[in-house]
From TrEMBL:
Pfam families: NRho (PF16733), Rhomboid (PF01694). Residues 1-64 form the Rhomboid protease N-terminal domain. One of its GO terms (biological process) is proteolysis. It is found in: Membrane. This is Rhomboid family intramembrane serine protease. It comes from Thalassolituus hydrocarboniclasticus. InterPro entries: NRho, NRho_sf, Peptidase_S54_rhomboid_dom, Rhomboid-like_sf. Residues 135-270 form the Peptidase S54 rhomboid domain.
Length: 283
């Protein structure tokens, strides 16, 4: 379910009485500060819009005042509602450590690393080989992480970037990015260096390409520093150069990173900008 915009207000307006009421009623929402100086109030579930619209009228009439501190829902509950407002981001964030734990109690995942080994490198230019391997065989190494540091680093970037995309544009674009960037990135990595790789970093680079392009070209404010994209692209080029001079120096899956990044850019260019219905303008 896509977020619904129910209020646009100037930056100086105090929305705390209204947001406290929403938290007290356990209605997931988010206030986003736009670049033009306005505040936008989004509801995670549009079914609450009629009731919230009534509260908006009461608030604008001065009939809703800030609740006493003890009446406001605990921050733990607020955090839980925010997690539920981005279900796909939260699900993958929980799935990655679950797979990591599973890897330490089972050896069933090890054959994931040898997918297509009999074809590489002799047949890596044959499209039939990729078709024969299939989507799941090529995509599933995305879920594998080989150290706690590897898992924490990728999970952090996933949470920062994926949550922003899901909050602003919904579940479907994020799901497409997850599947396409993971698949294309892994295909490029398999072509480039063969099997035996893993990690969701190709997807996170795709998310970075998506966010960076759409912030600059589509004026969507994900609240991510604009310099992050050029810095990470520069770092990617630096590690590729270093591994070219000293093979294996960084231990980085360059094919997955480059394939994911380019896929994210292309999807960002082709995917239409979501138009959000405005239920209430501030008066």
């Amino acid at each position: 379910m896509e977020p619904v915009l129910v209020l646009v207000a100037p930056a100086g307006v105090d929305l705390s009485p209204l947001t406290q009421r929403l938290w007290a009623e356990r209605i997931a929402h988010r206030v986003i500060d736009q670049a033009d100086g306005q505040q936008c109030l989004y509801l995670a579930d549009g079914r609450h819009a009629p009731q919230v619209k009534q509260w908006l009228e009461e608030w604008q009439a001065g009939q809703i005042t800030p609740l006493p501190a003890e009446a406001v829902e605990p921050k733990l509950w607020q955090g839980l509602l925010q997690l539920l407002a981005t279900p796909l981001s939260t699900f993958i964030l929980l799935l990655l450590p679950a797979v990591f734990i599973w890897m330490h109690f089972s050896a069933d995942w090890q054959h994931w690393l040898s997918a297509g080994a009999e074809y590489w490198p002799e047949q890596r230019f044959s499209l039939a080989v990729y078709w024969q391997l299939g989507v799941w065989e090529l995509w599933r190494p995305t879920l594998l992480h080989f150290s706690v540091l590897h898992l924490l680093f990728n999970s952090l970037w996933w949470w920062i970037l994926a949550r922003r995309v899901e909050q602003h544009e919904g579940v479907m674009p994020l799901l497409v990015l997850l599947l396409v960037c993971g698949l294309i990135g892994n295909m490029v990595q398999w072509w480039y260096a063969g099997p035996a790789f893993g990690g969701i970093s190709g997807v996170t680079l795709g998310l970075l390409g998506w966010v960076g392009f759409r912030q600059r070209r589509r004026n969507i404010d994900y609240r991510i520093p604009r310099m992050l994209l050029p810095v990470m692209v520069g770092w990617l080029l630096l590690t590729i150069s270093a591994d070219t001079l000293v093979p294996g120096l960084s231990g980085t899956a360059h094919g997955a990173h480059l394939g994911g990044l380019i896929s994210g850019f292309i999807l960002a260019m082709l995917w239409p900008v979501k138009t959000v219905s405005r239920d209430t303008e501030f008066k």
